[in-house]
């Protein structure tokens, strides 16, 4: 039975959840990461203020997330995740930044995004 991309991504997320018990996909991250987390000696809160999504994705990878899991959680493709991590693509679209913040449960203010009324 052939698997489509959606089924493959869902299977990857399930595999990650099993392999890393503290890991939860689809916006159920550890809220303390965004304030207390560090990547390469830099505060994750500062990286979020700079909207450095490449570093955010690298931070998630350091926590055991696969590129497939990051893509599934943020509504992007694995190719886009790879390009952002490698610095070949920057996330500048406000809509995409909002979606990433929402799906990863990052407080909007940390990324300089307006709160909705």
TrEMBL record:
Domain HTH cro/C1-type: 61-110
Pfam families membership: HTH_3 (PF01381)
Top-level taxon of origin: Bacteria
SUPFAM superfamilies: lambda repressor-like DNA-binding domains (SSF47413)
Record's protein name: HTH cro/C1-type domain-containing protein
A molecular-function term among this protein's GO annotations: DNA binding
Organism: Micromonospora inaquosa
Cross-referenced Gene3D superfamilies: lambda repressor-like DNA-binding domains
